Amino acid sequence: MTAQPEPATTSTSAARPTLDDAPFNRLHLLATVCVLGGAALDGYVLGVIGHAVGPASAQLGLSALGSGLLAASALIGVFVGGLFFGGIADRFGRRRVFLWNLLAFVVLSLAQLVVDSAWQLVAVRILLGLAIGVEYAVGAALLAEFVPRRPRGALLGSIQALWIVGFVAAFLIGSAVSPDAWRWLLASSALPAFVVLVLRTGLPESPRWLQAQGRTAEAEQIVHDRIGDYAIPDVAPAAARAGLAELFTPDRWRQSLYAGLFWFCQVAPFFAIFTFVGPILSMLDVQEGFTGDLLMNVLQLVGAGLGVWALHLLSRRAFVVSSFAVTVVGLLVIGLFPDAPGVLVVAAFGLFTLVISGASNIQFVYPSEMFETRLRTTGVGFAAAFSRIGAALATYLLPVSLDALGAHGTLLVAAVFPLVGLLASLAWAPETRRSALA
């Protein structure tokens, strides 16, 4: 693990307190709002397709595989965006990438109004996924580098909670919009994107990143003007050719692989199941409709809140191990007992929804703490990209699996993902809760 145990005393921090110990102020609040606003936007963009995929598929003549591709298209883009733009942000800075990315959100959201073929829509959704991948790679890393150590875990955990808020908002708005207006529904993400874009114009560059680049005077000026008389902790200088290859050196490959693998195992069943939650509940003989869908979304919100609380109480390792174990049990109960009473099915599915929503709060905390400043967005971007392989694959294949195996068989297959996550966490999960950023 690259993060160093606290306290972090260095030549620059010995004479005065460091950024890690600064009180929470207006700059920290601005960084938090900018990052959490982007997270809610990401959730909205990925969630709104759940209401649009049906009418869009019918109007554009998509098969089951085509519908799966449309649902997974943004996730494919997240893979590419996270993989490549994390390295760009490590090389050229967080602020520049973070700002221009929101302009892409606005333009691409509006572009969905004029698509007139399946491939045009898939292409735009893939490009939106690229923009979301940038958010995943840069947002958590930037917030981790700005905020003090004490609230860092809760604030980073709140990224996923706000993602779920955006996801649920997409459900509520999608439920109120006519299916014929699916283009307007998809384009509605332009409005929150514009608001967040305006807010981000007031955010400076990360002082830690500037310090790693040797631009110490600029970094100290930002800290002096926006935070106060605090030292910037020493960080490892940026390498001339830093990139993905550095994530897989002999002393780092397990950490890098685990950062993506645990995320992969969380999001694969989440995206697949909740993109097609209506057909799944119907096959499980659970009554569909607005009330049932609303209950699922309320459980997601409650789970997200409980997840932030659990992050405060539990070690990082205990958090991932316990949440994977409960998720496996919830899916196995539904899959193994097809003749179970409806109450048991609803309870097991509710447990799965509650826990997987809360468990996902650690997705932006863990990788941000595992990687040092000079590689942080590269590492977080790789982890996000790796995770989206599972999300895109599971979402793309789930309609086919439902046709072939039914809901119970599909949920049994879905249980393999958290089971792999559980085993990987028992073997490799590090403890970073009380570590200072390197």
UniProtKB/TrEMBL annotation:
InterPro entries: MFS_dom, MFS_sugar_transport-like, MFS_trans_sf, Sugar_transporter_CS. It holds the Pfam family Sugar_tr. Residues 31-433 form the Major facilitator superfamily (MFS) profile domain. Keywords: Membrane, Transmembrane, Transmembrane helix. The keyword Transmembrane helix applies. The chain crosses the membrane at residues 29-54, 60-85, 97-115, 121-143, 155-175, 181-199, 261-282, 294-311, 318-337, 343-366, 378-398, 410-429. It is found in: Cell membrane. It is a multi-pass membrane protein. Its main location: membrane. Coiled coil: none annotated. This is MFS transporter. It comes from Kineococcus endophyticus.
